[in-house]
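Re: weekly structure request thread

Next one in the queue (228 aa):
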Amino acid sequence: MTSQKIFVVEDDESIREIVVYALNSTGYEAEGFENGEEFFKVLEKNQPVLVLLDIMLPGSDGLTILKRLRNASRTQALPVILLTAKGGEFDKVKGLDMGADDYISKPFGVMELISRVKAVLRRSAPAPEETLETLDYGDIMLDAIRRTVCAGGVDISLTYKEYELLYFLLKNKGKVLSRDKIMANVWDIDFEGESRTLDMHIHSLRQKLGAAGEHIKTVRNVGYKFGE
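Done, posted below.
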């Protein structure tokens, strides 16, 4: 079985080496890059299954690189996890809005990193044939066969995480879903305090759905509900 290739774009050599070593030790084929220029040179010939991308980089920063990835048809759906500075709330929200699938705040533990990588890769894998279906509510239509979403007659471009979140909400429309339940089903993780990741994705999903985003209701002190 061929190892899954993961690219790590991180200018801090010590962090880059630790992350690459941890991924290689877990069975992945990781390759590190100091900046965006090196990364894109290799990306032209080799496509990874996932990119770990630091936001603070020399030259083109991580958000600029992310935008370039999302604007190219070949890498539009390539899963990306941002590596962010602790407290960089604005960058996290902006990164998710631009199409990042998840983020990890520095400093982070190796176990958390590997868990998040596995979760993103699981969620980005094609759904089993027997689970494919079409879900709809109001003017929202989700086609799980083509993995497309339409709201108000307009095609909506979602990241893997946003798509899986919307799919889970639609599958459970009308039900009040706790934060823990959503995190466990969409992210496969239950790290304490990670509900902020969920809130950011809800925010991004509402924005992308436009008026249809009003169907996502916040249930105070519990979680979220889709529809009435």
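The first strand starts at residue 5 and ends at 9. The chain has two domains: 5-124, 129-226.
Next request, please.
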